[in-house]
Write a structure and sequence with these properties.
This protein is α/β, with parallel strands linked by helices. Helices cover 37% and strands 17% of the residues. Strands 1-2-4-3-5-6-7-8 form an 8-stranded mixed beta sheet, with helices on both faces. Helix 4 packs antiparallel against helix 5. The radius of gyration is 17 Å and the shape is globular. The model has no long low-confidence stretch (mean pLDDT 93).
Length: 269
């Protein structure tokens, strides 16, 4: 059984943001995906048994303020630096999933000295002709669930499919049920609408990453093609790529034990 994370608020330059924290030891910062996962995430609680885990909720997600002050990835990186400074984090290990992986990579290329170790899980952020990232916005939830989960019996995949069925049958869905998803998609669109989920300059800057880097890919991820993980691994010096079987885009939710094992080995090396 892992350590529970505490829900806190941190005042930043652009407003108060929600932060989940727990555990003691060397710090690890987790940057969430467009789904806004964090609270109750098993792999973070397991990781907090031996590390000080910090999971900031990005502006516009959850209870975090300040999305109106974020216009692009440059603003996102400066916001992360502000969070690091206010928490006294000089060069923590940084783990990011999908959108969060893109943010982690942008932070590491701009300020390599602020990232002790880097872990990118199914990261977005690159544009590869012929291997484009699938559309995230405006798709039926049942379709999205098939990209997000290898196991369609996962409770979250089931919930997404059921919401889709209810919407198609014109059953009225309470707004409070849909609000977190709609809020997360709106916040993601501020960063990733155009250009879609990438930074045209990022690929040629990856050589600036100086921290030991692990790329983790869900072998059944159909949202972000394998070529993206390979491009990150080849662009970052001495980066290592690992694939996890029976996992798709939301790998941390499907295979928490496997991910924690990979993180522990990488962070201790």
């Amino acid at each position: 059984m892992g350590a529970s994370l505490v829900d806190e608020r941190l005042v930043t330059e652009i407003g108060a943001v929600q932060i989940f924290r727990g555990g003691t030891g060397d710090p690890v910062v987790y940057l969430h995906s467009a789904m806004g996962e964090g609270a109750g995430t098993l792999f973070l609680e397991d990781l907090a048994e031996e590390r000080a885990v910090v999971a900031p909720v990005f502006p516009g997600f959850g209870a975090s303020e300040g999305i109106e002050s974020i216009e692009d990835m440059e603003d996102a990186v400066f916001h992360l630096l502000d969070v690091f400074d206010r928490l006294g984090l000089s060069s923590p290990a940084v783990v990011g999933l999908s959108l969060g992986g893109w943010m982690a990579a942008e932070l590491a290329v701009r300020y390599p000295d602020r990232v002790g170790r880097l872990v990118l899980v199914n990261p977005a952020g690159l544009y590869l002709p012929g291997a484009e990232i699938k559309e995230l916005f405006g798709r039926p939830l049942r379709e999205l669930a098939q990209d997000m989960f290898a196991d369609q019996s996962h409770p979250m995949a089931q919930m997404m499919s059921q919401l889709d069925i209810m919407a198609a049958s014109e059953v009225e869905i309470p707004f409070e049920v849909l609000r977190p998803l709609l809020q997360s998609m709106a916040a993601t669109a501020k960063l990733a609408w155009d250009p879609y989920l990438h930074d045209p300059k990022l690929a040629r800057r990856l050589h600036r990453v100086s921290s030991p880097t692990l790329i983790v890919r869900g072998a059944q991820d159909t949202l972000v093609p394998r070529a993206h993980a390979e491009a990150y691994a080849s662009g970052i010096s001495r980066a290592r790529l690992v694939e996890v079987d029976d996992a798709a885009h939301l790998l941390p939710l499907e295979k928490p034990d496997e991910l924690v094992g990979l993180l522990r080995a990488h962070l201790a090396a």
